[in-house]
Structures are given as C-alpha cells and as structure tokens.
Write a structure and sequence with these properties.
Layout: E1 5-9, H1 16-29, E2 37-41, H2 47-54, E3 59-63, H3 80-85, E4 88-93, H4 96-100, H5 106-118, E5 122-127, H6 131-135, H7 139-150, H8 156-160, E6 164-168, H9 182-200, H10 202-205, E7 209-213, H11 218-225, E8 232-235, H12 242-252
Parallel strand pairs: 1-2, 1-8, 2-3, 3-4, 4-5, 5-6, 6-7, 7-8
Helix pairs in contact: 1-2, 1-12, 7-9, 11-12
Bound molecules: 1,3-dihydroxyacetonephosphate (13P).
Length: 259
C-alpha cells in the first residue's frame, strides 16, 4: 500500500512571524485521525522556527532546494548535511520555478537528487511540461526525458528505502488557477509509473509515491486523490491557508492506494 503525501510548498512567501503562525495553526487544528503523510516546505531561513513548532507532530519538514557539493567554498548555497542537521526530511529537486526561472537543467538536478538520497533524505523530484509542450503533444516526451536524466544512477535500494517521491506539476497549472483534470493528471501519472517501472522494475515503481501539483486545493483534492496513480498533492498557494491545507489532508485520510 502506498501512503498519500500532502506537502505544502510555501515558496518565497511569508514573513518569519507568518510562517510561525501558519505552522502553529496547522499544529493546533491537525486532524488526529489522518492516515496521510504531511510535509511543510518553508523557505530556508524559516526552517528552524517551523521545525521547532512541528517536531512533536506527525508533520515532517522539507526544504525547497539544496546544493549537491559537500560543505565548502560555495557562497550562498546550502548542503544536504546542513538540512539534515536541522530536521529536514524532504527536499524538492527540480521544481519548475527552479528549472524555468533559475535555469536549472537536468545534469545539475541529477547531482542534487543523488546528494539528497546519499544523505538519507527523501527527494521530491518535480517534473512537468509547459503549455506549449502540451499543445505540441510532447508531454510524455518531456516528462520521460526529465525522469531519464534526473534519475540516472539512482539505485533500487534507495527507492526501496523510500528516498524518492515524484511530483507531476504541469507548468501551465502552477499558480494559474488552471488544474489538470483528474483524467489528464492520471494519464500522466500512469505514464510516469510506467517509466519508473522501466527504470527500476514494476515492484519498486509500485512503491513510489507520485504527487500531483498545480492549483490543488481543498475543493479539487478528493477527485484528484481518487485517481489510482495520484498518491498525494504538492500544494503551493492553498498551502498558505490553514483550512485549505488541512482540508486536503482530510481529503487524503482513508484513501488507500494498492501497490
Ligand atoms: P500552486 O498550488 O500555487 O499552483 O503551486 C503548485 C506548486 O508549484 C507546488 O510546488
């Protein structure tokens, strides 16, 4: 059985006081009976404060990025070791904003992903096509190439140990209010699982959680999560609102995915 993973990517939002308020609000109202895994992914500089609030709750901590090198002369960067030391368990790799705004390409993302896994953390690898790519019928080609390149030299043992999550985030659905329909999302998720099966074998592919991201919210969570290959949500805007985010956590409770 795959558990569902609901993760809030807070991006470059909130003041420190607002991050603390949001984490505290989530803690106070967190549903006791949830069966889903939950992660909060604030900006780097708010990680310790958020960790302090959620450390005795079922919520895990995630980081939005990392650098692949061991600690050293890399001004402005943050290492996997630094993240682990402050309680981080999940690290986003290849979010579309890093690919398309910051210009990160597959060879760098592969190094980051392998460094995260080598540190014993879990990488959430984000993949997805732009609107032009979708219109040109290239969704599978683009996502397939991202998976091939970014997952090069990743071991089956790392996957068996749960160190890899995939997030399908169609770029055209991020922050736009446009959500992929459950059918559109399921189609790509099934394709992704097929690619993971080709890379790692069917048994391991069945263990990997594949999240959907792109204007996910309380109102559309249940129908997305009802799809057989959608194993959770990676949420941007709606994760900044306690009732919206916990609504998605509640929607995930009791949903089971056969592996
Ligand atoms: P939105 O939920 O704001 O569309 O953002 C999705 C996302 O990029 C999560 O990583």
């Amino acid at each position: 059985m795959r558990k569902l993973l609901i993760a809030g990517n807070w991006k470059m939002n909130l003041t420190l006081a607002k991050s603390v308020d949001l984490a505290s609000g989530l803690k106070k109202n967190f549903p006791a009976d949830t069966s889903a895994q939950v992660a909060l992914i604030p900006t780097f500089v708010h990680l310790p404060a958020v960790h302090q609030i959620i450390q005795d709750t079922p919520m895990a901590l995630g980081a939005q990025d990392v650098y692949f090198e061991k600690p050293g002369a890399f001004t402005g960067e943050v290492s996997t070791e630094m993240l682990r030391e402050i309680g981080v368990q999940y690290v986003l790799v290849g979010h579309s904003e890093r690919r398309h705004i910051l210009g990160e390409a597959d060879p760098l993302l592969n190094k980051k992903l392998r460094a995260v896994i080598a540190e014993g953390l879990t990488a959430i690898l984000c993949v997805g096509e732009t609107l032009d790519q979708r219109k040109a019928g290239r969704t599978q080609a683009v996502v397939g190439e991202q998976l091939n390149n970014d997952l090069a030299q990743v071991s089956g043992e790392a996957i068996a140990a749960g160190h890899l999550v995939i997030a399908y985030e169609p770029v055209w659905a991020i922050g736009t209010g446009l959500t992929a329909t459950p059918t559109q999302a399921q189609e790509v998720h099934a394709f992704i699982r097929g690619q993971l099966s080709r890379l790692f074998g069917a048994a391991l592919a069945d263990q990997i959680q594949i999240q959907y991201g792109g204007s996910a919210k309380k109102a559309n969570a249940a129908e997305l999560l009802a799809q057989p290959d959608i194993d959770g949500l990676l949420v941007g805007g709606a994760s900044l609102i306690v009732e919206e985010f916990l609504g998605m956590v509640r929607a995930a409770t009791g949903v089971k995915k056969s592996a």
